[in-house]
Amino acid sequence: MGLRANLSFLARLAFARLTRRRVPLIAQFSVTNRCTARCTYCYARYYAREHPELPTADALRVIDELARAGARRISLVGGEPLVRADIGDLVRRVKERGAECALTTNGDLVERKLDACRQLDLLSVSLDGAREGHDANRGQGSFDRALHAIRVARAEGIPVQTSTVVTRATLDDLDFLVATARELGFCLSFIPLINQTQPDGKQPIADLMATAEEYRRYFADVVARKRAGAPILFAAKLYEYVRQWPDFSTDKFLGDARPAFRHFPCNAGRYSVLVDANGDVYPCPQLVDVLPVKNLFEVGFQEAWRHIQDHRCHTCFSPCSNNMNLLLSLDLGVMWDLFRSYAGRGFGRPRLRRK
Question: Are 114 and 96 in contact (CB under 8 A)?
Answer without folding.
Answer: no
